[in-house]
Design brief:
DNA_pol_a/d/e_bsu; DNA replication; DNA polymerase alpha/delta/epsilon subunit B domain-containing protein; three-stranded parallel beta sheet; alpha/beta; DNA_pol_delta/II_ssu; single chain; DNA binding; 93 residues
């Protein structure tokens, strides 16, 4: 049996594509969704399925949207709207 599922950071990849998007004219990108937003939505769906079965601990990594000062603070539960509703989801540092 799996007792606990631990995610040790780097949920989204660092990408030059995000930097390129910010350099484009705003009118060209107004209908685009940032790939990091889509990635976090997919991750939340996955975590929700895992949290239905077992406890899950989520810790931030270098590429995650978290403060880079040490000790890093936990990722905010609003980043995981579905899975954070479960008592088995724990955002940790």
């Amino acid at each position: 049996n799996t007792i606990r599922f631990i995610v040790a950071g780097n949920l989204i990849e660092s990408s030059n594509r995000l930097k390129d998007t910010t350099n484009q004219a705003k009118y060209l990108t107004r209908k685009m969704t940032a790939s990091s937003v889509e990635a976090m939505h997919s991750i939340d769906e996955l975590f929700d399925k895992i949290a239905a079965i077992t406890d899950i601990d989520i810790m931030p990594g270098v590429n995650d949207p978290s403060c880079h000062m040490l000790p890093q603070q936990p990722l905010h539960p609003c980043m995981f709207p579905s899975s954070s509703k479960r008592k088995t989801t724990h955002c940790l540092t």
